[in-house]
Amino acid sequence: MKILTLTQKCSVWSADSSVTGGQTRFVSEPVYVNAEQIESMIHAGNTILKMISGERIEVTESPQVIIDAISKTPTVVLPPLPVLGANTEWYQGYASGADDMRNKCNLAIRAAGLTVKGDR
């Protein structure tokens, strides 16, 4: 599940003692949307998201920004292997085990569809 953080325009009405009795102002609030629930998008100044549930959400982001956010693949940065100053035999055994663990993590991360940075 991919959650997008978008900006929703909301109208806020506040009462006052004027002849009109109050005023409406627009504010921007974050809205969190499950990308898998978006059925379609319409760009009409702002972007209107039509959700699978039938709900419509008006956001300030353009359709292209939303598409880019949906298609962006997160990157995982692997930590570097340690450089230790012990004897050669011990270090080779340690490095071999650490390298094996790192390779297994790398394979699991790639299998999940993520990009790995720091890969050799």
Key descriptive features of the protein:
elongated, 120 residues, 3-stranded antiparallel beta sheet, 2 domains, alpha+beta
What does this 3D model show about the protein?
With 120 residues, the protein is α+β, with helices and mostly antiparallel strands. It folds into two domains: 3-71, no CATH class; 75-117, no CATH class. 28% of the residues lie in helices and 41% in strands. It is built from two helices and seven strands; from the N terminus they run E-E-E-E-E-H-E-H-E. It has helices at residues 63-71, 88-111; strands at 3-15, 22-34, 38-44, 46-51, 56-59, 75-77, 115-117. The strands form three sheets. A three-stranded antiparallel sheet has the order 3-4-5, with no helix packed on it. A two-stranded antiparallel sheet has the order 1-2. A hairpin with a 4-residue loop joins strand 4 and strand 5 (56-59). The radius of gyration is 25 Å and the shape is elongated.
Strand order of the largest sheet: 3-4-5
Most strands sheet: 3 strands, antiparallel
Overall strand count: 7
- Are there runs of 5+ residues with pLDDT below 50, and where? none
From N to C, what is the helix and strand string?
Answer: EEEEEHEHE
Helix % is: 25-40%
Shape: elongated
- Let me know the average pLDDT: 81
Count of structural domains = 2
Q: Approximately how much beta-strand content do the residues carry?
A: 35-45%
* Class per helix and strand makeup: alpha+beta
